[in-house]
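Ticket opened by: R.M.
Priority: normal
Category: complex prediction / small molecule

The reporter submitted a protein together with adenosine-5'-diphosphate and asked that the result be attached to this ticket for the collaborator who will pick it up next week. Submitted input follows.
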Amino acid sequence: MTTPRKIRVAIVFGGRSSEHAISCVSAGSILRALDPDQYEVLPVGITREGRWVLSGDDPSTFAITGRTLPEITAASGSGVVLAADPTATELIVREPTDGFSSLAGVDVVFPVLHGAYGEDGTIQGLLEMAGLPYVGANVFASAAAMDKEFTKKLALAEGIPVGPYAVLRAGVSLSEADKERLGLPVFVKPSRAGSSHGITKVSDWADLDDAVATARRIDPKVLVEAAIVGREIECGVLEGEAGGTPEASLLAEIHVGDHDWYDFEAKYLGGGRYDIPADLPAEVTRQVQEYARRTFTALDCAGLARVDFFVTADHQVYLNEINTMPGMTPTSMFPLMWAATGLEYPKVVDRLIRTALRRGSGLH
Ligand SMILES: Nc1ncnc2c1ncn2[C@@H]1O[C@H](COP(=O)(O)OP(=O)(O)O)[C@@H](O)[C@H]1O
Ligand SMILES: [Mg+2]
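Result attached by the on-call engineer:
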């Protein structure tokens, strides 16, 4: 009897976005969660400059030690080139001295990359070109979910409530009519960003131009949104085991502590805390879960997503945004919500890989 070959998973992490370090920590958690009897893992890091390297599994690559954040650099390993040849499905390693060698037979790629060049459809396009199955949303869904304008438009078309907003394309400023319609305060944000980068809460129209300029340093397209007074509620969604209806997790409520809103510090520097499950009436929980599943489907997502909402005091629910590759660190909301729902971290990872393999690559 021959032992079946292990599934070869390339975990691609790090990357060019501001969430480089978070991605390294997520990748380390995934690496540890994969059963070595079933999976062979190839950790492929992307440097901040965009260079791909085959890294070892040295824990310091993947962990925050003291105040030092993990980082992938060119010195982290040998260079890797993804062969864009769908008949090969291989990674080619460029050895510093002996030219090229092949890591043939990658079965599936887990791109644990957040933000630009990771969660926005670009690496998904590259993997499609290479004919490699991958975990998570396809090119379209990734791009649509990364862009807050199109997330709102697609969700609205499915009847999912979204707060009042205006889109300012490059060079355009907010009209007086829109100021009237939105009222103060407003949130001014880059259409395509994350981790609260470039976002300002504006309580005086005199501060609007500066806020728009700040957001435009990240994305020329800016959204101005009416501030919604409400609780911040998140829901994890997983693709159905055999396709079919996606499943929603228990909800998390984010408390921003003494911050006014969920800014970068509250997110990553310990200012916030959370409740899982969120303390909400059963029918409100069901409503949020239903909207989360419908948003996932409306954007044509696959694999996983974290869908974020506001819930007002009178229990109106508004979609805020969807993340197609949410943080996967041990303290990230997505795995914590699923653990509370009964699916422990290794089971989540296992399911993500199985659903990616079942889907395969290309159109289906
Ligand atoms: N329209 C809004 N009303 C109230 N708070 C908002 C609004 N938009 C953003 N915020 C606050 O800003 C945070 C970050 O905004 P979000 O759109 O989720 O951007 P990011 O993709 O960077 O997480 C939210 O978690 C919330 O605290
Ligand atoms: Mg957010």
